[in-house]
Amino acid sequence: MLVSALLVCAVSVTAARRHARPARSHTAPLPKTSATVRRWLKGMSLRDEVAQLVFIPVHTGHPSTRSREYRKFVHLIRDTKIGGLILTNVSNGRGIQKAEPYAAAALFNRAQRLARVPLLVGADFERGASMRVDGTTPFPHAMAFGATGDPDFSRYEGQVTAREARALGVQWVYAPDADVNNNPDNPIINIRSFGEDPQAVAAEVTAFIEGAHSDKRNPILVTAKHFPGHGDTSVDSHLNLAVISADRARLDRVELVPFKALTAAGVDAIMTAHIAVPALAPPDLPATLSPAILTGLLRKDLGFKGLVITDSLEMGGIAKGFSTGEACVRALQAGADTLLMPADPDAAVRAVVAAVEDGRLTRRRIEESVIRILAAKEKLGLARRRFVDVEAVGDVIDAPEAALKAQEIADRAVTLVRNTDNLVPLAHPAQACYVILTEGRYSTEGQAFAQEIRKRARSASLVTLDPTAPRDELDDAVSKLGSCETYAVAAFSTVSSYRGSIGLEGDLPHVMDLLAATGKPVALVALGNPYLLRNFPNVAAYLATFSNVPPSEIAAVRALWGEIEVHGHLPVTIPGFAARGDGIVVPRKATQAEMPVTK
Questions:
Q1: Which domains can be identified in the chain, with CATH numbers?
Q2: Alpha helix (H) ranges present in 460-503?
Q3: What residues are annotated to the active site?
Q4: Where are the alpha helices (DSSP H) in 506-585?
């Protein structure tokens, strides 16, 4: 089967070379183009036009220009002439390695020099540039913003994200996440969503794009994702095809509300979801490949006129059902403009060229998308300025005022869901025992939490445990904590691609059982997944920060010690335990200097 497919591709490519610019089967004139777009289009073959639709991953983990990976990178830009890049993280064997800001800016400049037509560089900056780049403003996850109830914070994040992105050489932000997370078992959206209320999510995502678009001198593209809504799923689409079983009326009432609001607000792009929606299309067809969803619903019903970008075509929700070439052809047939991260970019280009030659796709369909992409590049000013000043990066990123605002947001987000006997704030925090449960042996999670505890109580009992530890090691660690008045547990549980679930892994739940068996009160702080209370219903107190970033760790310590007012409210329902909007307000403890003087 594979050999036959390759032979067909080879024959089709040969035909494409014989007929460099096949006849266009236009039923209506193409949109008017500017002189710059026409100049870029001039001399492009069909193959060149198709390549402009392809976006490939790039990371800063292969600095040597003599590496095989780097040579392939150069080939795809200079020879294949792909249209853009997406910045990704890389695993270094001890966890995920983010990009170094100066290295990222320098790499993007080098890539731009290789390209005849400027490249569009995108990145999943859902919690600001810090999601992919070290040394940038560490905003918490979207759900933390939802817990504050103040869209002005999202507006500020959009503004800072755009500024830092452009300084790095990124012009296309794949954010905000417009999914309505109304499924507590969702393993891949969860805290990436602003919450479960469609109107509240719409307000937050609209504020984000307003902030991102506020600097007219440095425009940026903003993307809503994952259309038509990935919140009510229990399957990670990186692994398999997820399904939204709701009918059209429910979709209109819930999932589509933020996308309608964003379309009206002028969002530049919408990213598709690798999910099946039986109410709209065949039950085994991902939305990314559905004409009824991308053209019928998004273009015609919602009136969206911007760029439609696929989610990564390497993900299991697509790759397990379709070859690279077939997925690319079908995505374009459905109405997508850009093909994100096909497993084999050259094979993707060949397959799409063959589809045009065979009549499955028209040249017009290709040119519609090419014109949209080139017009976006011109709008971003890439014809005049495609390079960034590497030396100036440090003048823009992680501004002190932005870092302070990120901490304020994290503080405001802390939500107290349960507080038996007013356990929080801790009456004697220096006498409590602190247990940090991380998601990996080499994780940096918990470091900020531990440092903040040590600043306040140098000799406090504290232990950090990870899911790779055997049970006897966990037993020993808990036994060595000594006599504790109370236990405060910082539990990290966040979404991660290809994991398929969200919760405490390994034998870490056993640690919670050990602490409960002591009979002492336990305060559980969920640094990430707010639904964790369902797994440990007997804890005396429960706080949620909705994120695992360092500012959220600091906010958790401040809340436990009574240094901040706790007044966040749940943006989601915890079934059986708490409703959306719940949150116990606890005032800040008075400091010694503020205590009234008694005679």
A1: 47-395 (3.20.20.300), 414-587 (3.40.50.1700)
A2: 471-479
A3: 238, 311
A4: 508-517, 550-560
